[in-house]
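ESCALATION

Customer reports they have been waiting on this structure for their group meeting. Please prioritize. Original submission:
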Amino acid sequence: MTTAAIELRAVRRCANVLNSLHATSYFAPELGKELAGIGITHPRAANFAVRAAAMGPVGAGTVTATFYNYKHELVARYVPDVWAMASPEAVLAARVRGVDAALRRLLGAQTLLSPEMAEAAELALRATEACSRGARPLYAAHADLPVPEEPHLAYFHAATLLREHRGDGHLAALTAAELGGLEAMVAHTATGKGMSPKWVLTTRGWSQDEWDAAVGRLQDRGLLDEAGELTERGAALREEIENETDRLDRAPYEHLGATGVARLTELGAGFARAALAAGAYPADLIGKG
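Update from on-call: job pushed to the front of the queue and completed.
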């Protein structure tokens, strides 16, 4: 298929919709139950294991590098010890079982068996055909996994591939902007669309003092004002980062084509709305407070 130019806004909209479905897994009690069944009971260990398993039994350094916004000392508390609790292969199998159960609860069996789900899976998988492995470690690792047969699991698999492909590119954009992991989280939270400080501090291993120091560094750069809000310069940098991420991520969506992207966005948005209505995410996950 010959690629054609596509509006970067369309790339971002579709990517956000796909990520919304993928992200439900991190809050699904079904996945936690499956991981506990193979010996991984701590939520931080579970989080590191389930996302890193595709890369094999990697060490803390690899996880810190590819996850980017976690404090290394937190990662090292659980990795590589988590692989002594369960192998990456066992973790990946548990993820499939947990995601299957979670999607059945959030979307319902009728949706999972619908023509719309099959169509969404086909479109998303077609988009992944144009993803590239170079300098994209999390995507490349997941791209080596088999595609599940069931449409809803195939859709989740494709959404994961596209999410990690975009995420790897996003880290390149953040690095070019000279934003470290915590600084990137602080700046994103300041937009009102990022993870709340409570969730950042609870899940990423950073202290309040470290958060405050990151705020200070961003203020010194003129990116945040005295109240911790984005300045005009800070908002412009955030938009530049997102635009660069869109640019680096455009190939799969150009491959799919504007019509396909619009349809995938429409279908995915419906699934995401249903998951949200079913309580897929914590109520206080997003926001400045």
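Sent to customer with the following note: The longest helix spans residues 151-176.
Escalation resolved.
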